[in-house]
Amino acid sequence: MASKLKYYDFNSLLSKNGVYNFLVGARGLGKTYGAKKFAIKKFLKTGEQFIYLRRYDTELRGAKQALFNDLVDEFPDYEFMCHGDLLKIRKIDPDPTKHNKWEICGYAVPLSKAQQKKSISYHKVTLIIFDEFIIERGAVRYLFDEARVFNDFYSTVDRYKDKTRVMFLANSISIMNPYFLEYDIRPKPDTPWIRSHKNFIIAHFPDSDAFAQGVYQTRFGAFIKGTEYAEYAVGSFFSDNSDVMLKKKSEDAEYVATLITDGGAFSIWIDFSDVRTFYIQEKRPKEEVVWVMRPELMTEDRTLVSFQNPILARMRTAYANGNAWFDSAQSRNAFAGIYKR
């Protein structure tokens, strides 16, 4: 059963002239392939280099082994090589006894070691491809304060020259990631495009229906069609972006404190007239009592609280009994972390 899959066209995203470009959609949509193809074409035309970025060395080692395999047919006159952290290309000489010189077209870098790269000059780099920036469920963990770590790396590469663009690529896995939280990116079913920070950030959540229909023409696609796995594999639905446990704070709710978590800062409110119902909100009052649960987050105006804190213990009980409500899916998902040690 033959099929013609409709892969992603980067022209629509790049024409928006953003700096941080987020592309999140169905797996197999051609995100990584298209980004690498764009980078190689740009290098061959202008000599501008790119960085292929992953979070950890372990991810990068596996990716480098086959990084250019899918581009061989696209560039039949060239051959590719990964040598350490250097990505190289050379034109194939018609004479098999002769070989052209290898040229560095890019670099393979793990974000976890970005601090070690501060002395390296990336003056020819104008594109960073951050592949799989959203972590798959059950895989590796995000770096501590990752959005800041990435900004530090971007600054190292760009050197305030406004020369470098970023392609953040990921499957539609979770809205709970450091970048969506840091830049308040909120995917909505009827809003495929998000622009913010004076067009510095462009996020695209492409409709994958045309791609999915092509997938379902294949034998495997027909086999998984209609299953939960099909939504996971070729859909563009964020499973943690539902309206479960979302409700506006009651007028009788009283402010308790603001808790800073890995997912952001949230105000805690209790309605004592309604079975001690808790409300956790992203919106915070002007005057706050700020709590943290990790010593490294302490400052003069914050209080360190433990997992056994009476308010937090009661809130966990309210959560378990369906008496904890949130103002957004992101606040609900981020706050779930305090229920685990």
What count of domains describes the coordinates?
A: 2
Our count of helices gives 10
Record field, number of beta strands:
15
Helix content: 10-25%
User: Would you tell me the overall average pLDDT?
Assistant: 86
CATH class of the largest domain: Alpha Beta
Order of helices and strands: HEHEHEEEEHEHEEHHHEEEEEHEH
- Described by the principal axes of the CA atoms, the overall outline is globular
Strand content: 15-25%
- Helix-and-strand structural type: alpha/beta
Return residue spans where pLDDT drops below 50 for at least 5 consecutive residues: none
CATH architecture of the largest domain: 3-Layer(aba) Sandwich
CATH topology label of the largest domain: Rossmann fold
Query: For the terminal residues, how far apart are their CA atoms?
Result: 50 Å
Q: Strand count, sense and closure of the main sheet?
A: 9 strands, mixed
Radius of gyration: 23 Å
